[in-house]
Each structure stands twice: as structure tokens, then as C-alpha cells.
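#data-curation
PF: Archiving a pair of folding outputs for the training set. Convention for this channel: one message per protein, sequence first, C-alpha cells after, nothing in between. First:
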Amino acid sequence: MNKKIIIISSIILLVFATLPLNTQAKTVAQFEEEVKRYTAQLEETNASLAKNEAEVAEIEKKITSYEKQIEDAKNRIETLQKEIEESNQKIEEKSAESKKIIEYYQIANGENAYLEYAFGATSITDMIYRMSVVEQLTEYNDKIMDELEQLIEQNKKDQKELEEKQKSLVKLSEDAEKEKKKIQADSASLRDTVPSIKTQIAEAQAMVKYYKGLGCGANEDIQDCQYRVSQGSSESLPSVGFFVRPMQKGYFVRGFSSSHNGYDLSSSNKTEPVYPIADGLVHAIYTDDCTGGRWCQNMGFSCNGNAKIVVVKHNYNGGYIYSSYVHLSSYANVRVGQFVTKDTIIGYMGTTGCSTGPHLHLEVASCFWKNNGGCTYNSYLNRLINPSKLVTLPSKWNNR
């Protein structure tokens, strides 16, 4: 082998061997405390959800009331409009009737000698009586028309007030609907913990039981305890000295940051085979809790289903690290507890879960929150490792 290559390889191995893995102590006692804390958090969340549901129920009652009042106002407006139209019709009829009476009255007051014959009066007394009736009818019609005009004005006023009330009710209903959606969104975000609080409680309880079963002391670092016990077993996990890329060919998409827990890698082959970055043990095969809730929506897109994930545990530098392979389209023929090499296909690149397109999300940490991986989800987030510290990830590659 070329001497220069040997020197470079030795330097790389030395860098990896001295890489800090952020191994903060975690004990059985701390796990028991976290179980209590998560349980209290779950109770608080359930109480908040119950409160939200009660508020939504009250808002729905208000909305139903508003909708009924809006419908009543609409019906009353239609009734008033009909009354206005009927009143106008009566005014026209009374106006025509009054016109005829007035014409009669005007003729009756003329000096035409033929009046007695024309109007059928048999005497002056009869004529006076008939003229008196005409005057009374005219006054009566005038009174009726005045009342009808007042009714029309009142109806128009009532109609205007009802229209304003209807607008106000529509606004109240819209505001109530917005408040309802806001509360429901809050409930959705409470349910959309990643992973769920119930899952975290179950995992923490399982780890307390597991590490107590191993004989770990209440205040002993459980990672150290697990490593010590496993190394004394005939089934101990072989140590690895270097790491390789998880795909034969691909390109860089997105790096590690405070808002991104790993590296996003993709390939022209949208179902590119995925391999472990080193020899190890399949620690977990599962789908995440992504349901298109708050944390995904804040990134500007929704989930298309739960992400398929494989997690591999590696023995490295006197401890364990865990590599996660996320958004797989499908799993390969692997199982939890199976020893895999860096050349074992564990799945195929895809876009399951919270994803905008086919890619592999590679995540690395010095513990894992499932299957007795030595930490809860919150402490897992604090023990993430930038994958580029272990694996060389150029902008594009055609070999591992």
C-alpha cells in the first residue's frame, strides 16, 4: 500500500478515535424522574384537551344560536318586504278609490242642474246626505293611506335594523368559527407531540425495567452499564473504526443545524438502496409519529404518511452510537436484533413521512429514545451528532 495513503488513513482513524460523543450521564434514577415528569405532562395535556373540547362545545352552541337568529332575521326581512309590497298595493287601490270619490264630490258641488238626476238623489236632503257620505269616505281613505304610509316607513326602518342585526350576527358567527378553529388547532398541536407523550412514557418505563434487569445501579450511567454488561457477554457487538456513506451514489441536499437533526441525501435513483454507515446491530424498525401537525406545517408542507425508519446501533470508541435512516420507501429483509454489516441493505430511499421528495435523512446520536437506547426523546435531541463528523459527505459521490 502507498505510504502516503497509510499516513492519511491513520490520521483519519485518529480523528475518529478522539471524536467526543457527548455522552452525558443518564441513570436509572433520572429515568424514573422523567417518567414522573412525562406522566404529569400527559395529565396536564389531557386536562388542556378536555378544557378545549368544552370550549369548542360552547362555541358550537353559540354558532348554532347565531345561525338560528340569522335565519329568523332573514325570514322577518322577507315578511316585512312582503308587507311593504302589500301596503303599497293597498295605497294604490285606496288612491284610485279616493280619486273616484273626489270626482264625485267635485261634481256634486257644481252648479249643474242635472245633478239630482245624475246622482240619483230624490231630494235636496238626499243630495246633502250623499255629499256627507262622500266627505266621510274621502277622510277615511286619507286616514287609511296615512296609516299605510306610516306602516311602510316603520317596516322599512325595521327592515334596515334587521339587516344590520343580520350583518352583526354573521360577524359574530364568523368570529366564533375562527375561535373554534384556533382552539381545535391548539388541541391538534397538543396531540401532535413528536413522539407522543404516551410513547415517551412507555419507552422510559421500559428502559427503567430493562436497566434494572441488567443490574445497573440507581445512579450508574446506564450507557456505561449496558456497555460493561454487553462486553462481558459472548454476544458483544464488535467495535468499528470508521464509517462509510449510506448510499452507493447520491448528492447532498441539506446539512445539520439547530433546526435540522441530521443530513438529507438524495440520488437520481429515487429508490436507491440504503446501507448502514458501519457494522452494527439493528436497534429499531418503526414508523414515526408524524401526522401532518404543527411541526411539519411550520416547515411549509404537510406529511403524506408516517416515515419508515431503521435505527442501527454501533460499538464505537468505547461506547454506543445510533444511526437512523429516515423516510425509507420500504424496509429490506432485516429485523430488530440482527447483526448487519456496512454492506447489508437495510431499506430503500423514499419520501414517507414529513418529506417534500425522495431522500434519505441520516441522523446520528450517542443514545436513542426507543428500545432501551439509553435516553428519553428530550435528552436524545441534546445528544445528536453531526453526521459529517463521522462520514465524509461531499456535494456528490459515486462510491461509498
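PF: Second:
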Amino acid sequence: MRSLIVCTILSLAPGTVPSGGIEWQASYELALTQAKAENKVVFVAVNMDGERANERMVREVYRDKVITKLAGETINLVSSNNTHGSGKACSRFGSISCVEHRQVDVHVRANVLAPDADGFVIAPQHVFLAPDGSPILSVPYGVTEAELEWCFVTALRSVDEDLPLKMSSKARPPARLVMDGVFEGAGGESSQPLTREEALDLIKELKKGRSGGMQEKIKQLATADEPEAREFLTSILRAGRGGGGRRGGGGRGGEDRRGELLRWIGAHSPPSYWEVAAEFLNAGEEELRAEAVVAMEQLGSPDSLREVSGRVGKEKDPQIKKNLYRALGAVGSDDSRARTTLLKRARDGRDELLQANALMALGTLAPDEDIDDFLRETVAEEEESAQVAALLAIGLTRNAEWVEYLDGLPKDPTLRRRTKAIEVSLGVLKGAPLSTMEVTVMAAGSDQIPRERIFGGSVRRTGGKPDKGKRPPAGGEDDASEDGDNAAGNL
């Protein structure tokens, strides 16, 4: 089950790796022609200026030694509508001119991506195309080096199964992975992230309390990865409003929409907003606390591990605690103590609800042979509810090496929940979107709060062209990365 764990990437045959990072190709059409002629994968990176997740991709991920080595095995395109000087070589991407990456942007937008009705597309976004130009896989929003490594290796092996290429032990699939298609839509106007200057101006406007469309403007502010924005939204939540009431954020009167705002933050804000949600882990009202926990799970920031793990041991409400186990798996995927805590709870069958959620959380942890063995044991020996959770955890790993195991399991028609768990997990492992597991996971975990960031979003499958909508002005702002993964930009 774990054959792809030895790191041999750096011993690959030499590829084209520039000193500054990935070597980008200048033409979309020529890249596709070359890919078809040489049977190669095309890697498409969608990027834009002025947003932290995008900046981190350029500054760190595209310069990572493992990533640049892998990119030497693919044909690489960067799609950006911004301009970075007037020189022959772009100061941001290096190996091509701004005119060229802007032209790539036009072709990628028309032939690969799926803009929303207003013409917005998500950035950062990464798409891997087969030699015939069809999508192998894609990931909206930012990704870590470990996640992008998984995507590269998976895409390359889909074209050449005999390629002598293995993943490191850190590699893992992104939560918002889309197989055989691209993410569709960019979330609408309120999800467009703001520049720092725009965020500060909007805070001033909201403080006056006379702004129309208060709720939507508060949501838009929640996309800004700025400390002032986080502080302002925390003050709104402390004041007992969620924005959009009759008196706006923080005023008296109007309905309490704090839970709605926390849910929005979990689905759309940068990971740094865990600081906002964390304040309400023990806020009193069960509904608000539950929203805060699920928001922290969806934000998935490793920086929040101490808060989540500390709360797990203190929490008494089983409905909150079961969500804390899920959050612990999301924020502590690499942490040995989180793994120990979840394994201990998953082995304890005295509370079926807590055991099921701890089991599913195991599927979000870094690859581990002990966890793999434990999931097999659970499927073979435990009661049906635990078996269902373990089977869903296998699906949540997104590790296709589990396919043979699941295919070989006996299908007992009297155990309908177990059979359904096998079906949906197999579907995901064979390329179906994670959204196909959502209903089954929610039932197994007794979930009341949707996890839009994990399961949500529509997918445009291969074939046809996206509806390009209108093309907004150049230079807009902008989806699991560490710095801000909510970015949907009007490139």
C-alpha cells in the first residue's frame, strides 16, 4: 500500500531547472504542440500580484528544489495578467516576458479555466494537462510544496506509469483536489480579496456604520489577509453581531449573524483567520462554538494546533468534541501528538460518535503505515459504524493505492452503510470529486455544519470551453496555502 514513499525525486535525470525556479514556456499553443509530440504533461500555474498566497507561490513554492526538479519533467505555463516592468524578461517569473505570460493568460482563461459569471477566476490555481490538453487534475487556491509535489508525481505517473518517480513521505493530496476537471466559478464579488489599502479604507467605511450592503462588505473584508481586518471582524463578533443587521456590525438591534460570519470565514478566509475563530471555541453558545471549531478545521492552519489540541482535552460537549477531533486532524496532519491522540480515540469504542469522527480524521493525517494497518484492522474487526468511518478515512486520504484493497472487500448487501462507504471512497480514489463523499461523511460524523472549503465547489469536466463571461480590468486582487488560500481574482 505504501510503495510511493521513498524520496528519489532529486535523483531524477536532469531537467531544465533555472537558477531562479521553474522554467516557463512562452506560448500556450507551442506548449500544447510540444506536449502532444513528446507525450508530456503540461503544468499551468495561475498567479496574480498583491495577495499573499500568490506571492508565496512565486517566492517559495516555485523555487523549491523538489518542485523545480519535478517541473523539469513537464512543460510549464504561467498565466498572469499583471505587468512587471518593460524588460525582455519578466522580473516576477524570469524566463519569459510579461507580454508572453499575459498572452498565456488569455489562452488559459479561454481554453482551460472556468471563470465565474463576472469573469473572475481563482488565483492561485494549478492545472495539470495531459498531452492532448485535457485536465488530469487541478487545485484551486494555494498549495504547499508537499501538496504540489503530490500533484506533479500523480500527473506524471498518469501519463507514464513506468516513470522512475516516487513521492517523499511529506507529499499528500490537497484537500480541494479536482481530478479530470477544473474548479468552476470564483465565488462571486464578495470573495474577491482586497489589497491592504482597500482593506483599511473599507474598515473606515464600516466603522461609520452608514455603508449600504454591510453584510457583503464585511464578507469581502474577511478575504483580506491583514491584521487590521482580523481585529475588526473579531470586534464585530465580540459585540454580538455578525454584520448585516439593522444597525450593521457591532450595533444594537438586528439579528445575531455571528454564526453565519464564522461559517463564511471558514469557507473563504485566509488560514490566518484561525485567530478570529479561536476566540469563540469556548464562547458559550453551542451553535457559535460549533461554527468556530468547523471554521478552524476548514482553515487548516498548523499555527492553530495548540489551540485545538488544548481544547480537545477540556471539551465536555460531545457534539463540539467530535468536531474538535476532525479539526485536530486538519491542523495537526504532521504532528505526532495529534496522531497519537486520534489513534487512541479511534481505538476506543465506548462512544460511537467520537470514535467515528476520530477515525475519519485519520484520513487527513500525513501518510503513516501504522494508521494504514489500523484502518484495515478496523474494517475487518469492528462494528459497522466504525467500519464505515474507517472506509471513509481511506477515501479521504486520496491515495489511489487503496483501490485494490477496497475492490477486494466483500460486499454484504445487508450492510448498506458499509457498502455505500466503499462505493464513495472508491469513486474518489478513482478520480471522482471529494464532493461525492460529502453526504456519506456528514451522516457518519453526525455533522450539522457543511464544510464548503473541503467538499464544496462545482467542477467542469473535460470537453468544451468555459463560459468566459466579461473580462474585468487587468490587475485584480487575489484558495490548504499557508498564507492565504481564499484568493479569487479578476485577472
